[in-house]
Each structure stands twice: as C-alpha cells, then as structure tokens.
Design goal:
The protein is α/β, with parallel strands linked by helices. Strands 2-1-3-4-5-6 form a six-stranded parallel beta sheet, with helices on both faces. The longest helix is centred in the middle third of the chain and has 29 residues. The protein is globular, with a radius of gyration of 17 Å.
Length: 238
C-alpha cells in the first residue's frame, strides 16, 4: 500500500530515541523528508521553550518551504507517590508534555493549513486507564488527548487532520522511572505490570510506527479527532 508520504516534509519532536527514532527511520524509508526537534540533537531544542520551538520551525520552513506532517512525540516520564512528588517535577512534566505539544501545534498550524497536512500527537494509555505512581504523567497525557480532539474540531475546516496514539508499555528506557519506582528487581516489576496486559508483553517501538504512519498519510484522509490505543489490550480490562 502506497501511503503517499514520499516527498512530504515531516517534523518529529522527540525523534532521537524510542518510538520517535523508529518513526523517523520509517518515514525516511517511505521517502519523506524528516526534521527532528529534540533536546538531544543539534540544534538542541527544549520543546517547552516557545521561542526555541518557533525558531526551529522557522528554520525548517526556510530550508524546505513547507511542512506536511507534524508528529508531536516529545515526552518526559517521572514516577512517584503523589503526596511526596515534587511540584517542580510535576511542572516540568507538564511543560514538556502538555505545553510542548501545544507550542509545537501553535508554531506549525499556519504551515499545515497551507499544505492541508496532518498533526499527530503521542498520548498514552495512562491517559485512559491511569497508573499507580504516574499521576503527573497521566495528567499531562490526558491533556494531550484533549488537545488532539479539540484541535481536530477546530482545524477540520482548514483541511488539517489531528489524531493521537495512546501507547501502552513499549520496550524502551523511557519507562525506567516506573520500574525504579516499583522498587526491587526491574524484571520482576516488568512482569507484574505485564500481568495486566492481555498480550502479556511490551511492544517493540516498530509496532507503534505503522499507526503513526497511517495517521499522517493521505490514505487516512477521513480520520480525525481519534485517540487510538496501541496497548496489547490493556485498556480493555479497565
């Protein structure tokens, strides 16, 4: 199936590792031109910094003259009991996850309007079912789900489609704070979490990518306002 991504200019935040890195590779394989916005790349961009995001988007436009796809994937996860959780850490999680998603959308919508492009957010199954020790993270991802649905309604008349994925457990170092919060042996903590997943395993990042590609593709031209769980069935049990 031709996804129609060849020659499209795609912007991926959080594209230096995990799901984002797998997505970048897949987009390039499909023939897309990919620009990454990440704190771990050169230039380094803090997604929560409005000026830095706007400047980077302006650079991309100067280089390519268009933006067709935006994948808002940058994220931060810290875990801990709410009554002991530092407010400063809560604020940072919200700044990276929720504010960062808003800023990237705000900076790119005018360009997506020109190309009648697509905006795709990475939320989380935590936004749907919640998780012990993840109150701040779940709150930030629920904000992203709400942002995606609202923007879908707001921008449909401009031909911009907006959707989100809600991944469950994905086998990357991103989840290490959760295992550390559980205490004891990491492998045991993983086994305990996966006991609540019908498929009894984590996803490989490559298993998340096809849905992301489809959401950005013209092949899903009638799909907008959706938050799609990719979680091995986890959210069906809650």
């Amino acid at each position: 199936m031709d996804l129609g991504l060849a020659g499209k200019v795609a912007v991926v935040s959080g594209g230096a590792s995990g799901i984002g890195a797998a997505l970048v590779s897949a987009l390039k394989y499909e023939g897309a031109i990919v620009e990454v916005i990440d704190i771990a790349t050169i230039p380094s961009v803090d997604i929560s910094d409005r000026h830095a995001v706007s400047e980077r988007v302006a650079e991309i436009m100067e280089t390519h003259g268009q933006i067709d796809l935006v994948y808002s994937n940058a994220g931060l996860l810290k875990a801990g009991a709410t009554e002991e959780f530092p407010v400063e850490t809560f604020d940072r999680i919200m700044a990276v996850n929720a504010r960062g998603a808003f800023l990237l959308a705000q900076a790119t919508i005018p360009h997506l309007r020109t190309t009648r492009g697509a905006l795709v957010f990475t939320a989380s199954t935590s936004a749907i079912v919640g998780a012990e020790g993840e109150a701040a993270y779940a709150a930030s991802k629920a904000a992203i789900a709400g942002l995606a649905r609202s923007l879908a309604a707001e921008l449909a008349g401009d031909g911009i489609r907006v959707n989100a994925i809600a991944p469950g457990w994905v086998d990357t170092p991103f989840n290490d704070p959760v295992w550390a919060h559980a205490g004891g042996d990491k492998e045991q903590a993983i086994r305990e979490q996966l006991a609540g997943v019908p498929m009894r395993r984590q996803a490989d990042p490559a298993e998340i990518v096809p849905t992301l590609l489809l959401m950005g593709s013209p092949a899903s031209g009638y799909m907008t306002g959706q938050v799609v769980a990719i979680d091995g069935g986890l959210s069906t049990l809650r």
